[in-house]
Amino acid sequence: MNLKEIPIKEVTIRENHRVKVEDTNIHELMSSIKQHGLQQAIGVTGKPGDYTLVFGSRRLIACTKLGLKSIHANVMGELEAKQFLIINLTENIQRENPSFAEMGRTIEQLKKLGLDIKQVAARIGIEPRKCSDILDTYTRLPSSHRGKVKFGGKGRTTAVGEISAGVAMKVVSLKKQLNLSDPTCRSLLDNLGKKDLPPSHLSNLALLMDSGFKFEDALKKVADYQVCRPTLVAARGIIQQLMTKHNCTMDVLFQKIVFGQIPPIPKPDFIKLGK
To answer: Which fold would CATH assign to domain 2-76?
Structure first.
């Protein structure tokens, strides 16, 4: 690293280094810098006129707000900066109880730095499948909902306004499986933070909402209808009658319908054709 004084205006902040000024101790840091000067240099990579911040976003923001024109910086090579970021991200996420949003953001950043899912999973100490599921859910969720998702656990229940990670993953999966519209997914996420709904009812609820029902109206029909797949939706009573008649489970009944061994079940008229 090469320690030097560089113009603040030449430093670009990476998206993953942006912080909410109101959520930090920026004003305390500004007071300290004003009284004692900057005690620790920031880290950047790049060349004169085009530097990119590697670490020290709060220090950079504080100095900018103080009206300083230059700042002490460790100028790092690209490889050195990449190694630093990987180590720093890994250490930060290994602290106790990271949030879903922090975990998803870190996995995404480590992937962008060139690590594959297995390497990321090994560094942060989780199974590759879980790592992949978190990343997929995080990247597909609207940014406005990422902070509402909470990891579950023994004795852990979600509060009003929160969404369990399992439910969020199910909604993301349903979006792909049922080709749900973005408004339906957003409405689902908004309302699932207020209602305690079993994950097994989500597909029914999602398809009903995507057919034009509002959440509360769809919720009233959830107990009455079963969605086996987008093309197989039927009243639970009809399905139960057919299961009894053919002496089979729902899965076997589904297979018999798919392979034409028994007539298809008429789709309820409130489900849009072609969905």
So the answer is: 3.90.1530
CA distance 169 to 180: 14
Q: Are 47 and 15 in contact (CB under 8 A)?
A: no
d(CA 246, CA 244): 6
Q: Nearest Cα to 150, choosing from 104, 204, 201? A: 104
**Domain parsing of the chain, residue ranges:** 2-76, 82-140, 163-258
**Residue type, position 7, single letter:** P
pLDDT tens, residue by residue, 50-100: 998 988 888 999 999 999 999 999 999 888 888 888 888 888 787 767 889
- Architecture (CATH level 2) of domain 82-140: Orthogonal Bundle (1.10)
Radius of gyration over every alpha carbon of the chain, rounded to an integer in angstroms: 26
**Cα(93)–Cα(103) distance, rounded to whole angstroms?**
7
Locate the DSSP E strands across the chain: 2-7, 11-12, 42-47, 50-55, 70-76, 149-150, 163-164, 225-229, 232-235
